[in-house]
Input
Amino acid sequence: MNHELKSAFFSFLAAMSLTAAAEKVEIHTPANSLVVDLWKDGEPKFVYYGSRLSAQDLKSLPDPTRENWSHLDLYPAYGANHTQSEVALAMTHADGNMSTSLLVQDFDIKEVSDKAPNGNDRKGTLLTITLKDPVYPTTVHLYYLAYKDVDMIECWSDINNAEKKDVLLTQFYSTCMPIRRGNVWASHFHGSWAAEGQLTEEKLNNGMLVVKNKDGVRNATSDRSEVMFSLDGKGQQNCGDVIGTAVLYSGNYRVAIDTDDSEYHYYFAGINPDNSSYRLRKGETFTTPHVAYTFSREGLSGASRNFHRWGRNYQLRHGDKPRDILLNSWEGVYFDINQKGMDQMMADIASMGGELFVMDDGWFGDKYPRKNDTSSLGDWTVDRTKLPDGIEGLLRDAKKNKVKFGIWIEPEMANTKSELYEKHPDWIIKAPQREPILGRGGSQVVLDLSNPKVQDFVFSIVDDLLTKYPDIAYLKWDANAPVMNHGSQYLTMANQSHLYIEYHRGLQKVCERIRAKYADVVIQACASGGGRATYGLLPYFDEFWVSDDTDALQRIYMQWGTSYFFPAIAMASHISATPNHQTFRTIPLKFRCDVAMSGRLGMEIQPKNMTNEEKALCRKAIADYKSVRHIVQFGDIYRLHSPYEGDNLASLMYVTENKQEAVFYWYKLETFCNQHLPRIKMAGLDPDRLYTVHELNRIDNRPLDCEGKTFTGAYLMQNGIDLPFKHNVDYHKQNDWASRVIWLKAVD
Output
């Protein structure tokens, strides 16, 4: 159907929507369909979400029966029929009435072509449903955007107040999705500093499962807003029906799965309303964050592949550009920054094949030099005692060493021991009439981004650096404190509950200004590690720091969970020192390299403390990674064997879209005598092609038995390859660790 016929067809549907009869309305992606039932002055109803429907199946879909009709509301509002279960919207009207009724007035379907949040062009179909309260002048629009080229549907809502006075929003989810009861399992993620992205899998039972965040600044350190639902039993990686969901928001969120006495689980997601009731002024419209849905019949990894394609194309900044291999100075020198030391680290990473050097914390402060974490945040001037040649000298040395240069900032924060705080104590988040509660280092405070002056200041930090030093190629943007005492010195007392929402509106405004002026600079989202692994911010950032914990063994677990929704290109994964600085575990360099190579490879180490042999191994790993970087960063993920199974093995692989190449990862997690590990079957290959096997990062005295041999894709997916449980190395180099990285190339 050409564009003109489509437009005419959609206009016809919109006209028909005003009739009294219920009408099924469908929007679809390449492989998914969403169907709703709409009729004039009735509540909108959910009908279907899953594999794309044929015209005949759409026509034959049964109407919801009268018995479960009230259980399939698309956006239930508190009051009338909805007082005993979770609702999407609750509000107190200007006259004190707490009940709301939302009935369909109209709907519209149209083709859209616009800019995605990351600036890329996108095309889709937009369904807009207009709901009104028959008594109060309250209007809600529900939006559903179905992408044309990826299997993703985004939904959100806006709420308009046309009453004569303010109304109070007390609950305002973005979406509600009924999920048919059965053997449904949820995969979701929890964590803590240095232990982010931990996978939890549980069967949905009666009651409420709530996943939430109330940090105020960072929303991925603890629970994460992404959930996958396996619809036919405990989730399998590469088979089974799965719905994947993600809240595209950087602030406090709440995901609630309510299972009542009906035949459905009800998924609600959006802004966390706790201590965030919103006073909606007369004539004001409140827009909720977007929530993304995908459906896959190829298991958990299939849903991941959908999110990764969508994420690279439409969410992640520069998602089509390979990421540089970098050395970050933090674990190498911590705050001990100096000109000579930075030059030495640049030379070392260049000698190992690296492409970028990033100077971390400790480079700034005039009146209060940054010697530790107790002072100086907010005073973004170069400490000339440490760096007498300034940033100019660092850029000069980077050019000399033929690497790019990046720098660390924490622009949303201040220390009470800083010139900024002395000048603007009114700029920090603090409860009225109370003393500030202090964070990291006993002196850290959070700047109040609801204040436009603070927004200008935060923008100026980036603007000043990049205007004065346009050769800076990379920014590491950190955020190391939560909101510790709720309150704003800028917002009125009547609007104190707006703080969490207004903070992230302000942060978004700053990020939009930065990207409008500096579209090309690479920016990492770091927030005490993985606190900002979220699609709410990735449209402005190129990657995130997975965790401050660089221990390779624990990283396997964290990166496994993070990979459910985020592509490898966004996951910064670094080779660090041993004993590890967080767990103090001693892990061989080979294993550390192999784990880091499954994400965006980098280093977090002091090279001058490495032996020549260690440097040579890293040089080899970096060269090998460059050979397969395109596969890892842009390929399709297939998770094969979970570390959470508890049998001491983890395995995954990436495959190019054309099935021409793949990279296979195998990690032994513990060693026992007489140990027996399963042989891992591969996935995602072309069964009819021949693939040649080549091991990367090899340290063994002799190659694997399969080295250089050729197998069909069918054989590798049905049988896998046998791998030894230990490395064949000289006696004095033996240890209890083993890992393999295998490069598969199709034979032309």
Q: What stands out?
A: The chain has 13 helices and 35 strands. Residues 326-412+452-484+521-629 form a domain with the TIM Barrel fold (CATH 3.20.20.70). The chain has three domains: 3-315, 326-412+452-484+521-629, 640-746. Residues 612-634 form the longest helix (23 residues).
